[in-house]
Structures are given as structure tokens and as C-alpha cells.
Write a structure and sequence with these properties.
Layout: H1 10-13, H2 18-32, H3 47-61, H4 75-88
């Protein structure tokens, strides 16, 4: 059984992330947010998968490097981020 079955974005957008992916996203968020990140657990269907993903994220919060690297952001991805920031700036003055 894949550990990402209950810890995935598959149901929302068709993308499996898995525990290493969640750890990598946590690492990326930490760098973008100057270390100010809050993680919250929600309910799920596979408690073992949630536990493994949460543990991977906690290891990153404690200073361990993520075992997964998404690489550099694409130019199209960077444009989308900038567009999102512009839309959200009205509501989030710190942007």
C-alpha cells in the first residue's frame, strides 16, 4: 500500500505527494516564510500514512533535510506565483 493514499492531493487535483513530498514542501515553506510555519493535521482515512507524513514534516521542522528535491521553479510557475501575490496583496498587506 502506498503511504500517499490518504496523504495526497489526488482527490483535489490528481497529484500524489507522499511523505517525502510533504517533507519537501515543508522545507520549501520554511525557506519562504523565514522559518515561521504552522502545520495542522486534519482527519484522514489511513492513520499510518498520516503518521508517516507528519513524522517526515516534523523531522524537517527539527532541522533535517528533506529527502526529496522539487528542483527550481519553472518560469511559468514563477509567473503564477507573482500573479497570485498581486491578487492577494489587497488582503495581505505584508506581501
Amino acid at each position: 500500500m502506498h503511504d500517499q493514499k490518504s496523504c495526497s492531493l489526488r482527490h483535489a487535483v490528481g497529484f500524489d505527494l507522499g511523505r517525502q513530498g510533504y517533507a519537501a514542501l515543508t522545507e520549501r515553506l520554511l525557506s519562504l516564510a523565514d522559518g515561521r510555519v504552522v502545520l495542522a493535521l486534519e482527519g484522514g482515512y489511513n492513520l499510518d500514512a498520516i503518521a508517516r507524513s507528519a513524522a517526515a514534516c516534523l523531522r524537517v521542522l527539527l532541522g533535517e533535510e528533506s529527502p526529496h528535491d522539487f528542483g527550481s521553479i519553472s518560469p511559468a510557475g514563477a509567473r503564477k506565483i507573482e500573479e497570485t501575490i498581486e491578487v492577494q496583496r489587497e488582503f495581505w498587506k505584508g506581501l
